[in-house]
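Hello support,

Our group uses your service weekly, and this is the first time we've seen a run hang past the timeout. The protein is CASP-like protein. I'm not sure whether the cause is the sequence or the server load. Input pasted verbatim:
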Amino acid sequence: MKQERDMLVIQCPPTTSVSPATRNLMAQQQQLPTPSPFSLSAVSTTWSSRPSIHFSSLFLRFLALVFSFVSATSMGAPPLKKKSQQPSSFTQFSELMYCFIVSILAFIYSAFQLFKGVCDIAHRGIFISDMISDYMSFILDQLIGYLLISSSSVAILAVRQIEQSSSLWKAAIISDIMSFSTFLVIATSAILSGYRLCKRVIW
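Update from on-call engineer: The timeout came from a worker crash unrelated to the input. Re-ran successfully.
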């Protein structure tokens, strides 16, 4: 007679050895603090305040574009022909010619800045990086502003030499006023560009 013995075999899973590096990593993950709602609100406030600066700069660029366009067209438009001994073209005055060229340069620069501002809002950092854009705007704003204030000052000397009854005198007055208005807008843009540059470099 055969006796069958049932053997109960218990299979224990092998103990996995955990390395000290893994234990330290798990401990660090457990000790990570939960993000505070105040930090999230601060980040959201920063991102919400940045578009306002961009839109303000964009509005100033648009004003500079309009003012420089009016300054250039008022000087470049052919004046009405009148019987006068005074020259009817601004090209015979070097001061007015200088003011006309500077107005065209300010118009081209304002159009470029307006296009760049739209690209920065739509596709941030794709057209020109933010750091290069801040440095370039700060330097070129001061350069264009210097040219505008110098051309406006020089144009006053030419206005005094033109007869007040002529149409060229009226065109020179309008061009000089618009050129000075463009200078005020560019100067404000330069202050805003300097603020953004200082905020990036120092703060």
